[in-house]
Amino acid sequence: MGSCVFPVFMGLILLQIHKISECHKIEVTPDSGTIVIFSKKAGHGLDCSVCKDEGPSQTCNSNLRLTEAQPTTVTFNCSQPGDVFNVAINQEIDCSTTDCSIIAVHPDSTRFLEFTRTFTWDLKVQSGKVFQLDFPSPGIRQIKPSESCPDKHTYTITAYQRAGPANIGSFCRNGTISRIQVLYRGRVTLEVPKGTDLNSSDFKVSMGPAATGVVEMDVKLPRGPFSVDFFTPNYATGYYDEQKMKWNFALKPMHNFTVRFQHYAPPECQKKTVMCDYSLGDKTSFTVAPTETQPANKQGDFSLTLANCDAKKVANVPGLSLNFNVEVFRSGTPYLCTVDLRNEEGLSLQIENKNPESYCEMSLNSVMQEKIVVPAGTKADLSFLDCPVQDLQLTATKVIDCPSVSARDVTGPSLTIPTLDPSLPVPLHQFTWLLRLRDQSTVDLMSPKGSYLHQSLPDKQCNERVSLLISETEGSNIGQFCSAAEGTIQKIQIKGNVSITVTPKTIKDLSQEKGPFLKFGISPEITGKYTTGQKFGIIMILFSGVFLNVSCCMLTKPAFIRLQIQ
Ligand SMILES: *[C@@H]1O[C@H](CO)[C@@H](O)[C@H](O)[C@H]1NC(C)=O
Ligand SMILES: *[C@@H]1O[C@H](CO)[C@@H](O)[C@H](O)[C@H]1NC(C)=O
Ligand SMILES: *[C@@H]1O[C@H](CO)[C@@H](O)[C@H](O)[C@H]1NC(C)=O
Ligand SMILES: *[C@@H]1O[C@H](CO)[C@@H](O)[C@H](O)[C@H]1NC(C)=O
Ligand SMILES: *[C@@H]1O[C@H](CO)[C@@H](O)[C@H](O)[C@H]1NC(C)=O
Fold it and tell me: InterPro entries, per this entry (predicted)?
């Protein structure tokens, strides 16, 4: 007993399958302008026929061609017709006017799923013109005629020439070819095996310009390193017509290309010779024979026109066959440098590219990185390819683990920016010191010059070349400070870890500003308390000798302010 349970309703072509023993009955309505053909697979001896109901009678055969856009009942007298029959869905597209632009639509995905489906589009334009196929992104790629596509959707393009059909090539989805132009008349075939859902990717058909050859392809090469293969029409058996084939390659900026002829089988020329004409983006052009070296390491877009000779077409004399490869790679040479942080305790570096449009390629120890991080205590080999300095940002962080105090204050060194490797091609954009405490002690910050600190306030801003931001490491900023003659802050005491960040204000590169920016020390835990009982985190010790009516500080957190009268 054969089972006859299958999908019932499918788009414009209606397919119905009824449960009848040892048979399949389906109802098919071809789209208008479409021909549906059931035909027996070659070499299939299986005893099964396709029958069409015509009133009370039935005509049975090994194939059935439906052309009318009306429902027809089709019966197969076996339970698995997909094992015996293929279905072809053919559409003719005449695109003979200049404003013709037709989207060649794939029918919906599950139609005729149980059959191997061959979709064919027969295309025609005015004589002497080309028909143009535009493939939506991500384009298509050419495969060897013997290969098949990983997604089981194989496209074939055929040109109908006076001398007979020429197989332009087999193609898979997802590739670098965005457009193919073919002389005058031809066919696009898409074959999908049975059981595979059709994955729709419609292409556009239009009439192109006057023909210059049998085929022309537009290829958009991605960022390198990348390489891709192409094959001439009738690859392997050979192409005999005295025609041109052209490939136009668009490269990404900052890329070079190399063309290699992987396999070349020459035709037997009766007149003329086979020639390869190259024209480069910079308008230079040259011609080489296919047996000569092809262009290597050239820059920019280019096109290759292969002109066949008038080849002798007799049995056992092959025609022209060429398989060539185009490789693209970056045109620039990387800038190399080494950063050694092993002698600067706690110092780490970060380099970022701030321009996502740029072709900058950075790598750390030969591994490509979006963002370079050189951890403290390491040595790293860096490489920069086509990275404009103004797009890069270098930030450095130095972690200082402060000693613990018993009761006596400890005065640490001044904060200065260490000398970074001068071979590093990036201006220093930000430098941060992270003062880390092991216990509950307090960080004291003072002006390094023996003067006082001033907090940058709206009515009296710091007027320095850099800005100096002091923050608690849990995130809250205490404020921007500078050393100033009229400063009033003798000392800032902060409980817990502190970060101090220097960024340029009027200069471009911090590495020219060594400092010292601040002096720091460690003292025992702050003991002051709010009225609520919560401990103070910040104490400002102000020098009251000069200030009268001078604004001193603005803090986002409650702080304890102590006047030091001298
Ligand atoms: C199907 O029909 C054809 C023609 O009517 C007949 O020759 C064949 O034996 C039938 N096959 C089966 C399996 O019934
Ligand atoms: C398309 O091709 C590229 C490169 O060959 C591959 O990396 C990518 O995964 C492919 N995408 C799909 C959807 O197959
Ligand atoms: C259909 O093709 C697209 C693009 O190639 C892919 O992303 C998608 O996964 C495919 N879907 C199926 C069902 O194969
Ligand atoms: C890329 O091509 C240009 C011009 O032909 C050449 O000057 C440059 O050296 C090439 N780049 C590489 C990486 O070879
Ligand atoms: C300071 O930072 C270190 C390391 O992140 C941490 O272990 C320590 O507890 C912090 N100290 C305070 C007082 O928050």
Answer: CDCP1, CDCP1_CUB_3rd_6th, CUB_CDCP1_1st, CUB_CDCP1_2nd_5th
